[in-house]
Amino acid sequence: MSIAEVYDVADRRAPLLPPTPPRAPDNMTALGRLAALRNNAIATWGQRAYQDDLIKGRFFNHASYILNTPDAIRHVLIDNYENYTRTAAGIRVLQPILGQGLLLAEGRAWKHQRRTLAPAFTPRAVGTLVPHMISATEETIAELQGSLGAPVDLREAMQRLALEIAGRTMFSFAMGRHGQTLRDFVMEYGMKLASPRFLDLLLPLGWPSPQDISRALFRRRWTRFIGELMAARRAAGKTEGAPPRDLFDLMVVARDPETGEAFSEDQLGDQVATMILAGHETTATALFWALYLLALDPATQQDVADEARSAGKDETPAIERLAFTRAVLDETLRLYPPAFLIAREAAGPERVAGQTIRRKDVMLIAPWLLHRHEKLWDNPSAFMPARFLPGTPPPDRFAYLPFGVGPRVCIGAHFALVEATLALARIVGAFRIELIDRTPVMPIGIVTTQPDHSPMFRLTRR
Question: Which PANTHER family match (predicted)?
Fold first, then answer.
């Protein structure tokens, strides 16, 4: 069957409706929402949030607005983005693990970092890192061969794979020696410190909450560990006159094109932490969700395997030969956007979507809601990769935000899509994947869109 025929068949199938958590009552009390927020932010939204253009509420002493129209989102994230900053709660949760890296920097510091890092993430630069991605993926496949027929935790396997790719593309060395420590740090922070508590939301940023004390202690250990990784990379050396071989090389030699300024040692450490964490965690989660959806939809899984076989196994395969696999990933990111919520606080008054916005009002842009909004998508809860096939009308740029949009769009978006597309094609090309665990996997929103449990899969050789 040709790829064109595969697309046509896929378009005619009855679409899969993956399980989703129940929607909150529209009349849920503020205290009820606050309690639910600690466990799963996704479960705080009711049916109106999937239908209305704007939802107005209160966030302590200030108004909050959920924006569901592309024009309003464009205004906040592009037209007047300098009027909107991260909320205090968002900074509290992310700063201990990301520091002042690109994701959290503001103003001149952000512009300096963005200009300096941009050359490291061009398609040409990412292309030089593809061999690292391929080698890590092939090693993961070889390891999974030892689990054929037995229950396997693909979520853990994808976390290890994404971490290995992050380590190799950042430092050119395998993460076997450091990987468990890094995973322990990520799990510790996610389980104990990443969810905002009541005082995190209530107190001004300059007033430490009880959780902030624990976060500060965590950061001390975390930055020491990142320093050890950087020292190990420097000890490995670099051939004089040779081109950069990894992201660390690229960041060390990077200079702000306007000022000529390099990163300080602390800034470099924060960039390393940001790139490793933001890169490996979101990619691992996207790969898990894609494999889960394909296990629920064997026919689409077979289409991905057929495409992977036809694309071949070149050392650096052309991504354009994996168009259907990429469409599966795009649809996965629509249903399970890694960043399920973007929260911004108004620095000054203005008008948005017919509303008078005051200083410190909170603007909420939720990719989880946008990507499932009934006015913006046909059959929004269904898994339909054909939406993203070449030749189909693209979604509105401000209705599909898996990597954000505007000046602060994710700098590593191209890197992540190349990595995930190559890995997904090779894994599905190697194995037939089925679910053993029949308990529905529910998405929960805690920093990223995570599964509520890790189901067991069974792999068989194709």
Answer: CYTOCHROME P450, CYTOCHROME P450 12A4, MITOCHONDRIAL-RELATED
Strand, helix or coil at 123? helix
pTM surpassing 0.85? yes
User: For residues 336 and 435, is the Cβ–Cβ distance under 8 A?
Assistant: no
Total domains present in the chain? 1
C-alpha distance across the termini of the chain, in Å: 17
Secondary structure of residue 58 in the 3-state scheme: strand
d(CA 405, CA 397): 8
CA distance 272 to 290: 27
Structure tokens, 203: 């107190």
pLDDT for res 127 = 86
Whether residue 410 is annotated as binding a ligand: the answer is: yes
Give the mean pLDDT of 404-409.
Answer: 87
Query: Residue 448 — very low, low, confident or very high, per pLDDT cuts 50/70/90?
Result: confident
Question: Regarding beta strands 342-346 and 362-365, do their DSSP bridges make them parallel or antiparallel, or are they unpaired?
Answer: antiparallel
The order of strands in the sheet holding 342-346 is 54-59, 62-67, 362-365, 342-346, 84-86
- Greatest distance between any 2 Cα atoms in the chain: 65
**What residues make up the domain containing 64?**
3-461
Partnered with residue 54 across adjacent β-strands are 67
State how far the Cα of 423 lies from the Cα of 125, in Å rounded to an integer. Answer: 19
Q: How far is residue 65 CA from its own chain's centroid?
A: 23
CB 33 within 8 A of CB 44: yes
- Which alpha helices (H) appear in 313-412, and where do they start and end? 323-335, 367-370
| CATH number of residue 441's parent domain | 1.10.630.10
Burial of 449 (0-12, 13-18, 19+ CB in 10 A): buried
Indicate the average pLDDT of the chain.
88
Tell me the chain's radius of gyration from C-alpha atoms: 22
CB of 23 closer than 8 Å to CB of 45: yes
- Rounded to whole angstroms, how far apart are CA atoms 55 and 110? 31
Question: Is there a contact between 330 and 358 (Cβ–Cβ < 8 Å)?
Answer: no
